[in-house]
Amino acid sequence: MTDARYMKRTIVKDEVESRYLPAGKRDLRVFLPPGYNEVLSYPVVYCQDGEDFFNFGRVATIATQLILDEGIEPFIIVGVDVDKSKRTSEYSPDGELHDGYVRFFAEELLPYIEGKYAARRQPADRILAGDSLGGTASLHIALRHPNLFNRIIALSGAFYPVSQSIASQAGDLSGMELFMIVGLQEDAYETDRGVFNFVAINREMKAILESKGATTYYGEHEGKHVWGFWQKHIPASIKTFIKPEF
């Protein structure tokens, strides 16, 4: 049974306007940690597929448990919703809406969050998180804006050849850190681009990134390409980048 304390949390429904997104705006879900105080400042986890992270990943409940029971430093979560019909176009680096999405994230979303909430403004305190193609989007946002983002959580990242090619052309990535996991049963997963061996493409991306100096916290585990698998590893992903207060 879920501890009732974990359900007493603040999740704000918000919206940010955009010049770069076709709809002109984007819905957000913002988790504010227990004891949130505007006088203080907090690390922020920015999640692609925001609705899924909150509903299927149970990220707000997990965050509350980590803060209350494990003494993890309180942090904010920003879930960025996505129109599933436009997801590939926004998240994939060769998608027609990708450039606008990256500009939205760096030039509009980040200033909005840091202007409205008590969010820290150092790259080490901004964490990009995503599942599958959301992990891909998070990596490419960081590659495009290394001065803003250098910490990434990629849950079964969809690192197709186009992503590997872009990463291979990157310069020094010694400031980048990635938490990467993949399920061993993802070796023949059907996507809208064909069937891929996600174990293989994650191993390949790990090697590429490490060759550029990036640090990876990499794991292969029993699991499929589903939220039931990813949810189990969200606590470890968060604890990789956000530590106990004492």
Automatic annotation (TrEMBL):
Q: Could you tell me which SUPFAM superfamilies the record lists for this protein?
A: alpha/beta-Hydrolases
**Domain of life, per the record?**
Bacteria
InterPro entries named in the record: AB_hydrolase_fold (IPR029058), Esterase-like (IPR000801), Mycobacterial_A85_antigen (IPR050583)
PANTHER family on file: ENTEROCHELIN ESTERASE-RELATED, IRON(III) ENTEROBACTIN ESTERASE
Any idea what this protein is called? Enterochelin esterase-like enzyme
